[in-house]
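Final report, section 2: Outcomes. Of the targets proposed, Ferric uptake regulation protein is the one most frequently requested by collaborating groups, and we therefore present its record in full.
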Amino acid sequence: MSIQHQLERAEQLCQQRGVRFTPTRRHVFTLMAGHKGAVSAYDLLDRLKELEPNAKPPTVYRALDFLLAQGFVHKVESLNAFLFCDHFAEHHPMQLLICTHCGQVVELHDEAINNAFEHQARLHGFAITSQSIEAHGHCQQCQAEHSNC
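The predicted structure is given below as C-alpha cells.
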C-alpha cells in the first residue's frame, strides 16, 4: 500500500475520531510510513528537520505520542524506538520479533498468544492495561550469514 493511501486512511480515521491530524503529525506519520523497521525519535527528528527546520525533541515526541494513541505506530520498548503499523485501522494483538544482529523488527498478530497471555494474567489476578511482547533473536538472513563462519 502506498504512503499516500496510508495517509488518506489515517486522515479519515482522525476525522472519524474527532482528533486533529496537524501538519507536524502528518509529517511524522509520513516519515514513519516510509521507514523500513524501527526508528528512534532522534533519527526521526533529524529527518523531520528537513521538513520543519525549527523542530525540537518535544515536537517529535508529541507527534509520536499522538501516533501511538491512534494506533498508527508501536513502541519497541527494548530498543526505545518506534515501528509503523500497517494494520492501524483495526485493533489487533501484537508481538515483536527483533533481530539482535541487523535490527529487523517483525510484527506478529497472533490471537492465540494474546489470549494465552491475557488468560495467565487473569489467573494471577492481574488486569492488563497495556502490553508489549518482544522477543530478541536472529532473523533468517543473519542466521544464514553467521552459520557460514
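The chain has a mean pLDDT of 91.
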